[in-house]
Amino acid sequence: MFTNKDVKLGICPIGWSNDDMWDLGDENTFQQCISEMRLAGFTGCEIGHKYPSDVKELKEALDLRGMTVASKWFSSFLGTKPFEETFEEFKKEIEYLCYAGATAINISEQSYSIQGNPDLSIFKNKARFTDAEFAQMCDGLNKLAEYAKSNGIRACFHHHMGTCVQTLEETERMLNNTSDDLLLCYDTGHWTFSEVDPMAILNEFPNRIGHVHLKNMRRAICDQAIKESWSFLKSVRNGAFTVPGDPEGCVDFEPVLRKLDEIGYEGWIMVEAEQDPAKANPFKYAKMAYEYITDLMAK
């Protein structure tokens, strides 16, 4: 698979230190994180809260290890705030990413988001936009995507549990009401958690895939979280997520990778799994994922 295509493998630091719950992995340093990423085989990463804020310092540390920044999370509030407020922050992030050598920015619409609330169910308490708010978000996304593209960065929307663009229906609506410049940060774990076949969006919008998160889920814990209407953070703490290659995982990654190859995807494929590093050793799971994915890609 992916013969003669520019496809690179990276991993997110959230397995070493969690960005929503800082007590998970607080003992793990930035230097340890990126060293173990590279030792496991990966050449790219996303940005975590333990990373230095000085982009020059960050780039030097990654260059020493033959690594680069693939992308970075960006929280937008397009549906509920004036566009200019989001745009000013967005421009700073684009400048940062251009210097760091990244190719994508992962936009997550955080208006009314409950993903960081440990007490609210991502199923029962998830908010929904009014038609006017949804239209305002889409208009803002088009503007962000146009600006990012003019700077050589892919603007990739991250559908996410606990937000107003969580379900397949909401994601389809967003893609149908935005320009082709706005791409998708495609995440297998979030599709599975929202009880959607991860293949659905690949088949429906093959030309809109701009960045890929390969995230696995432990079926029994996922089912319990859905049945008992857990919050996103409770799901993370209880081990709902894991990496590709984990025997406890339920996501079938082979058809996903084959479809990405078929549609001509080029770019970063990132391993991401919000886990408690005290229970799931980050280096062990990073190696597990790298070996599993490279074996699949060699078929």
TrEMBL record:
Enzyme class: lyase
Domain Xylose isomerase-like TIM barrel: 39-281
Alphabetized UniProt keyword annotations: Lyase
Pfam families: AP_endonuc_2
InterPro entries given in the database record: IolE/MocC, IolE/XylAMocC-like, Xyl_isomerase-like_TIM-brl
Name of the protein this chain belongs to: Myo-inosose-2 dehydratase
Coiled coil: none
Listed GO MF terms: myo-inosose-2 dehydratase activity
PANTHER family: HYDROXYPYRUVATE ISOMERASE, INOSOSE DEHYDRATASE
EC number: 4.2.1.44
